[in-house]
Amino acid sequence: MTKDSSHTFIHLHRSHHADLLEDFNRTHLPHEDIYVPPQHQPLNPDDEDDVVPEQHAAFGIQRATQRQQEPAWRDLGLDRILNEGPPKNQRQNEQLSKVRLLR
């Protein structure tokens, strides 16, 4: 309960209002069960133990490792560009344009 010296927004006109307010604040509401539809309920991890997986986890891993990966082209030729500079004649320029078209 607030003291008379502290400012509040509640103005009690009668003295028995203070008793009612204390009784109101003291009571606790019981917890109620709330119905949640099944589609909104979280999955129960215990239920997943009984389910047989459609695909074994190792099958996907083996398949991914057996697949032949496409070789990655990592040589960008930057050292050649730094050493040689831009093309000096028409023939080198044509070769570079063909390389660009192939990409």
How would you describe this structure to a colleague?
The mean pLDDT is 72. The protein has helices at 16-26, 57-66, 78-84, 90-102. The longest helix is centred in the last third of the chain and has 13 residues, at 90-102. The chain is mostly helical. The chain contains four helices and no strands. 40% of the residues lie in helices and 0% in strands.
Architecture blueprint of SSEs:
Layout: H1 16-26, H2 57-66, H3 78-84, H4 90-102
Which labels suit this protein?
103 residues, 4 helices, ubl conjugation pathway, mitosis, cell division, cell cycle
Summarize the structure.
The chain has 103 residues and is an all-alpha fold. It is 40% helix and 0% strand.
Helix content: 25-40%
Please count the beta strands (DSSP E, at least 2 residues each).
0
Written as H for each helix and E for each strand, in order along the chain, the element string is HHHH
* Unreliable spans: none
Judged by helices, strands and strand pairing, the structural class is mainly alpha
Please indicate the percent range of residues in DSSP E strands (runs of 2 or more): under 5%
Cα gyration radius (Å): 39 Å
Distance between the termini: 79 Å
Largest sheet: none
Averaged pLDDT: 72
Helical region count?
4
| Shape call | elongated
GO cellular component, one term: anaphase-promoting complex
Keywords: Cell cycle, Cell division, Mitosis, Ubl conjugation pathway
Protein name: Anaphase-promoting complex subunit 13
Pfam families: Apc13p (PF05839)
